[in-house]
């Protein structure tokens, strides 16, 4: 066997592609941002394509390394991820998504890629849709399967059976940023969507005011889980490259926008990273607590005192973000490009 035989393992393939942009194919990337790791030494380094400005995590993580950053508590307990009002708000937002999709299209078949616990799918099913989900996390999928009559496939979209059904609507809510190869996922989506179907994609926007204000403290940076960082421009380019035509964009997000800005401001002001977010999580759904107990209690007290000032400011900045900077979390609707 040749000594210079190329290692064809998935990890080496990703490593080889580390400086190749998956949006435009350019082979030249520059350092974008360096962020200290939560635990241990070292830093996470983001790279930016010199051709199209797509941003991605430069370090290729093996599947087991990446899985270590998605412990069961990341998905919350069966009864939810957040404490009372927070969980009610999240559930309400998922139902709002179901309502807005039903306004866009009459109930038919829908695939939710990265369906999590299946809250939105259950709401869609109740509105008359034939629902199906894919979920990489067996843990989250188990919870989704507790919802009666929910069809959830564990694995990525490429592992759906060949020749399986195509869908009237496919949704990807805050999924692409978690994938090392967002293009590959969208190419599979393109094969699964009907010619007159609708794609709905939502991602955080790395070009937003919120991302610029936050820098390494940006709430949606979320390293190393968010490995692909898109913007209005790069998402539009990526969608067109795989055969979709964007038809509509939403720049405001009630679910992610004002809170993301608030937490980014708190992080930027020097409070422990995502302290309030962790405090809002339900017991058993918390990731590593970022600070000592008493120090954390003091910081939370100061945060609560500042909330009457910071919450309206965050809402205003989110509005400004959408009006002038593209919005912190964007939602793009796209249809399959018609063959000429
Ligand atoms: Zn590029």
Structure write-up:
- Helix content is 37%, strand content 20%.
- The chain is of the alpha/beta class.
- The chain has a seven-stranded mixed beta sheet with strand order 6-5-4-7-8-11-10, with helices on both faces.
- The protein starts with 9 loop residues before the first helix and ends with a strand.
- Mean pLDDT is 87; it is low at 1-17.
- Bound molecules: zinc ion (ZN).
- The site of zinc ion has 8 residues, from loops.
Jot down its keywords:
340 residues; alpha/beta; N-terminal domain of TfIIb; Rossmann fold; 3 domains; 7-stranded mixed beta sheet; 4-stranded antiparallel beta sheet; 11 helices; 11 strands; disordered N terminus; binds zinc ion
Write the layout of secondary structure elements.
Layout: H1 10-16, E1 29-36, E2 43-49, E3 55-57, H2 63-67, H3 84-104, E4 109-113, H4 119-126, E5 130-135, H5 138-145, E6 152-154, E7 167-173, H6 182-192, E8 193-204, H7 209-214, E9 228-229, H8 232-241, E10 244-250, H9 257-268, H10 275-280, H11 293-325, E11 329-336
Parallel strand pairs: 4-5, 4-7, 5-6, 7-8
Antiparallel strand pairs: 1-2, 2-3, 3-9, 8-11, 10-11
Helix pairs in contact: 3-4, 9-11
């Amino acid at each position: 066997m040749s000594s210079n035989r190329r290692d064809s393992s998935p990890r080496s393939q990703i490593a080889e592609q580390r400086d190749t942009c998956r949006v435009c194919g350019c082979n030249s990337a520059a350092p974008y941002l360096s962020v200290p790791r939560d635990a241990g030494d070292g830093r996470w380094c983001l790279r930016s394509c010199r051709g199209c400005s797509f941003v991605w995590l430069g370090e290729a993580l093996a599947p087991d390394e990446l899985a270590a950053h998605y412990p069961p508590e990341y998905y919350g307990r069966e009864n939810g991820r957040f404490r009372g009002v927070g969980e009610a708000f999240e559930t309400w937002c998922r139902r709002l998504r179901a309502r807005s999709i039903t306004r866009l299209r009459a109930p038919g078949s829908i695939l939710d890629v990265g369906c999590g616990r299946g809250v939105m799918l259950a709401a869609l099913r109740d509105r008359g849709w034939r629902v199906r989900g894919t979920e990489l996390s067996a843990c989250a999928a188990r919870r989704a399967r507790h919802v009666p009559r929910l069809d959830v496939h564990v694995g990525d979209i490429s592992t759906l059976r060949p020749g399986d059904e195509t869908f009237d609507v496919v949704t990807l809510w805050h999924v692409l940023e978690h994938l090392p190869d967002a293009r590959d996922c969208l190419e599979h989506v393109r094969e699964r969507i009907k010619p007159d179907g609708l794609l709905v994609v939502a991602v955080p926007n790395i070009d937003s005011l919120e991302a610029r204000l936050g820098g390494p403290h940006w709430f949606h940076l979320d390293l190393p889980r968010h490995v692909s960082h898109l913007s209005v421009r790069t998402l539009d380019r990526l969608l067109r490259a795989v055969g979709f035509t964007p038809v509509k964009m939403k720049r405001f997000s009630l679910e992610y926008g004002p809170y993301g800005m608030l937490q980014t401001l708190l992080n930027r002001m020097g409070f422990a990273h995502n302290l309030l977010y962790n405090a809002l999580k339900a017991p058993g759904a918390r990731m590593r607590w970022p600070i000592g107990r008493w120090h954390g209690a003091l910081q939370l007290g100061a945060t609560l005192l500042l909330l009457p000032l910071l919450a309206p400011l965050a809402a205003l900045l989110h509005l400004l973000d959408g009006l002038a900077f593209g919005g912190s979390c964007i939602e793009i609707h796209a249809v399959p490009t018609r063959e000429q």
